[in-house]
Every structure is written in C-alpha cells, then in structure tokens.
Amino acid sequence: MVVDKKNSEKKYSIGVDLGGTNIVSVIVNYQGKIVNRLKVPTLAERGKEATIKRIVETIHENIVQSSVVPGDIIGIGIGAPGPLDIKRGMINFAPNLPGWRDVPLRKILEDEFNMKVVLENDANAAAWGERCFGAGQGVNNLVCFTLGTGIGGGIIIDGKIYHGNNYGAAELGHMTVNKDGPRCNCGNYGCLEAYSSATGIKNRIKNRIREGIKSDFLNFDEGKLFESLRLKSIFEAARKGDRLTSIVVEEAISYLGIAIANITNILNPKMVVLVGGITNEGNKLLIPLRKEVKKRAFYSNYKSLKIVIGELGGNAGVLGAAALLWISTDRSC
Description:
There is one protein chain. With 333 residues, the chain is α/β, with parallel strands linked by helices. The chain has two domains: 5-128 and 315-328, 2-Layer Sandwich (Nucleotidyltransferase, domain 5), CATH 3.30.420; 135-310, Nucleotidyltransferase, domain 5 (2-Layer Sandwich). Helix content is 38%, strand content 21%. The protein has twelve helices and 13 strands. The protein has helices at 5-8, 48-66, 105-113, 122-133, 192-196, 198-210, 225-228, 231-239, 243-267, 283-296, 299-302, 316-323, and strands spanning 12-18, 22-29, 34-41, 73-80, 84-85, 90-93, 101-103, 116-121, 142-147, 151-157, 160-161, 271-275, 306-309. The strands form three sheets. It has a five-stranded mixed β-sheet, sandwiched between helices. Strand 9 and strand 10 (151-157) form a beta hairpin. 45% of the residues are buried.
C-alpha cells in the first residue's frame, strides 16, 4: 500500500515492541506524536500461542483506547528480538520467548488486522526511531548501540537500515573486544556484551564478590545477589572510589569505547547514538567514553563523529517500528 504525502499526514501507524518481559504498543501520527501507548506483561512463560494472542489483544485494545478510526491506520510495525527473516516476516528464534521458532508473525497479524505489517529487529527499530524522531534526525549515516540487559545494534547507511547478507548485521554486542575475556551468553569469549551490558557488569561484580573483594559503598542482599544489584548503585559506588566496582565500571566504559572506535574506523558514521539503561549516567558515561574513542579511532574519522545519548528513551523502539510504515510513503525521516 502506498500513501501519498498529503493523505499520509492525516494517517497513523502502530508500533509494537515485543520483548521477553513486556509488550509495548503505540499509535503514532505522521509527526511521531504518540496518540496512545499501552504496555502489558508478555507472560512469555505461557508459551508461543498465548504470547501471540496477547500481542493481538494489545493492538486491538490500543486502537479502542485511542479512538482512532481503523481506516486511518496505514499499518503495524513490530520490533522483535532476532534472529529474524525480514523478507518473509518470520521470527526464526527468540531466546527470551519460549517455543518461538520459525513463527510467521507478519502473516498472522496481516490476517488478523487486514493491514500492512512490517517486521524488524528491535535494535534496528530503535536506531530508526532515533533517526526519524530523536537525536539522529537528518543524519543519514549513524550507528545505534542499545545498552540494556544485552547489547544490540542498528546501522543506518545512506538513510537506509543496513541488514547485511541474510539480515544478521549489527550484532554489535558480540564484537570481540578481548580474546581472553569472560564467556558471553552467546558462547564466545570476550564479547562487548560480556563487559558493557547490564548483565555483563552485574556478572563481573558477582564474580569479584565471590573472589572475596568487599565493597564499602554497595548495598545488596547476599541471598539474592544478582536480583538486588542495581546499575545506578554500581556506578555511584565506582565514582566514590569503591574497590569492588570501580574496575568493572571503568572496563565496561573502556571496552564500549574500543567497540565504538572499531565501528568508527570501519564505517565512518556521522553519529553514534546510545540508548538503554546505562545512558542514565549522562556525561559521567559520555566524557570517559569519548576520551577512549578519541584515543583509538583515526582522528580524521573521530573529529567529525558525534557520540550522543538518544532522545526517545524507552520509546525509541516502538516509535521506530511505527515509522517503518512511512517508508512506503514519500516521507523522509
């Protein structure tokens, strides 16, 4: 379906972020304004069919709450964990969604709602959201790092999402930054995710505690060590000079800087956008990070590079998913 610009400005699209913990659905207008937002627990442990039913119900309820006429909705964009087959609209495998293998989600939703559906990797959707409505507006060459429980990535080249040969590009969290580093959940050793994700930082803190290193500032429940650790508390303790956390935090920032320097030298982007929980540290993250990148990247590439924190917060993915529908119009994000 192709919508001309004049008519598209009066239309809406639906964005969905499918996560292992929550499903978020938004209805968005042409300018990126959220008309209605609905967030529900995924309840993934109930199985694939129950989760699909929950997605469908959430979208229906969002439409009802918004009072938007269904005929004014041009389609649904979904950001989902991968690996995906974008061309076929299929989720090949989703580690945090039990039983999800080769699920034709696009067709399921097209049959249910009788409208256009676009499936995209969730990190690519976040990158697209920041480009269309956030920090990357007007930037045609950018890289987005999603820094959360894990680390994902989205790459935009010449104003288009870069998918790679078989839609597996931008797995930035699984860039090896230290060949002798800790084991990552993917099975490799020394991945960026093992150092700089929330899980990686907490795992390394936990290992140091097991080695007998004590903290003068960090409060946690030893019986529920992993669950009670908070990134904010870890970074605060590190800034106070805490022996337990300072090295882990310094290395997390350093290895992220190494990864960004590598990307800078390979792709020469105009901007690197950071989104996710760790970015709450603001300049306390950006200042040492930029210093590390400057030290390692070609100066000619670094001097024109902007390293920024995203502007859309937790809505980057759903806004990007919704904006995927406007690609079929003449809107230029």
